[in-house]
Design goal:
Helix 8 packs across helix 12 and helix 9 crosses helix 10. The longest helix has 18 residues. The protein has a 7-stranded mixed β-sheet with strand order 2-1-3-4-6-5-10. A 5-stranded mixed β-sheet has the order 7-9-8-11-12, with helices on both faces. The protein has about 290 residues and is an alpha/beta fold. It is about 40% helix and about 20% strand.
Length: about 290
Amino acid sequence: VVLDADVSSSTKSGIFAAKYPERFFNVGIAEADMVGIAAGMATVGKIPFVNTFAVFLASIGLIGARAFGSYSGLNVKSMGAYGGLSDAFDGPSHHSLEDIAIMRSFPNMTVVQPADAVAARALAHAAVDFNGPLYIRLPRNPVADLYSPSNYRFEWGKARTVVDNGADLTMIVSGILLKKAVDAADALEKEGIHARVLDMATIKPLDEEAVIRSARETGAIITIEDHTILGGLGSAVAETVAEHCPVPVRRIGIRDRFGESGDPELLYRAHGMDTASITAAARELAARKNSYR
């Protein structure tokens, strides 16, 4: 069953509503009520997917996510649309820059973020069979597919190696900035800097084994996320590295500030999250790694 808070034309849950009207519920602009209704449905064996903007799920809908998802362990799938700066033109009131940090802090909550449409489709199918509270973060703006439907399978809690050019550094990415990291790795390769790129679709539970292995084998890590660097992917990776295999770490993301309204690519550039900025940061990290030794 699918629930939406009166934004189905934006979240695209209206496509489901048109095909399965008896299993679609528009609760209106009442995010907290929507999560509570979904929790009730979960107690009688339904598999509810709740949909609204990520910024509202991680604020107005948060008491339900904590009480009914995290604490009660109910099988509610929370779909946070328009994550990060991707809802660019709607401005800071709609930019969800802290939702991963919030959801990641809740016990029992699994947090995932696909990198492209192929991964999102595979994740949606996997989410039906997943049992337990789940937060899925989705973007607004389009991105080119990196994966092929014929050879992609979503694996819970496992990082996927997308580029493995060598042992100078590792880029760990979650979400649609993965394409920019891949392009940066290509640019670095031409400069003689060999980068590994990991797609960390599952942020919690983190694939700590992949992080530790990358730290040991490449000696430096850069994290890339459309989210605040406080509490999200960068924090999760840095915590793991600090505890198990200390190496230089650089976090790319929103640096303790709000976003602003504008073209998404211009916003990414302003916040150092475009391909050129990622390339420059990786270049600096590789140099710092050598001095660290």
